[in-house]
Fold this sequence. Notes:
This protein has five helices and 19 strands. By secondary structure, it is an alpha+beta fold. It has a six-stranded mixed beta sheet, with no helix packed on it. Strand 11 and strand 12 (149-153) form a beta hairpin. Helix 4 (177-188) packs antiparallel against helix 5 (210-223).
Amino acid sequence: MANPxxxxxxxxxxxxxxxxKTWTIMSRNAPQFVYLLIGDEKAALIDTFxxxxxxxxxxxxxxxxxxxxxxxxxxxxxxxxxxxxPEAYMSEYATTEAKKAFGAEMEAMVQSHAYPxxxxxxxxxxxxxxxxxxxxxxxxxxxxxxxxxxxxxxxERILYGGDEIEAGQVLIAxxxxxxxxxxxxxxxxxxxxxDFINSAHNGTHLTKxxxxxxxxxxxxxxxxxxxxxDSTAGFGWADGPGGFNNAxxxxxxxxxxxxxxxxxxx
Length: 266
């Protein structure tokens, strides 16, 4: 039988172990990562890419434990593969957009999966998930997307921040930057409980002091003193208008922190 995760271009996904109970899965289609956290009783899969290939088959080469799918937010590049499983967990707001495919082709792809009408289950701020000697805590955040959550792996001491903090650029609406500052300050309040940050795009296993650079960039943008770069290019992002409906965009930087700022973004 043909491998659904191999096509004419080769492997769709790659995987590597980053800790005793942690695997990182990469997508060929974008500089993107999802994460598999394995406990003694079950596993948690953080995000599911767009839905190409058969992500469930790949996950089952790593673990035979029941898998709990958790979405950091409802954008389809994080939820498209949910439909390989009968249910997925996310914030209440994420349930309103998780099944909105990026176009007709992706919608048709999802309809071919085993569970196109999978059940969305709600996670709330402070919820604790026990995988079996492996404990996760849900932290409600949200500026890149108001349905974002972070997942704090209290056992492996890793914070999973989705698209709210990353090594490349955070895509954000200008009006949401005060909320991003609140988000960064909230995550910083947990900093004695994690050693690294794993983001969804552009780079993984960030040192936790990345948060400090984003806090300073937030403050400078709000004060009108942030450094605006001449080009928006970087970390795989193109220069000039584009990305979303050919919208105007600007790049701001402080230290290792970068924003791509739009007039509106959701």
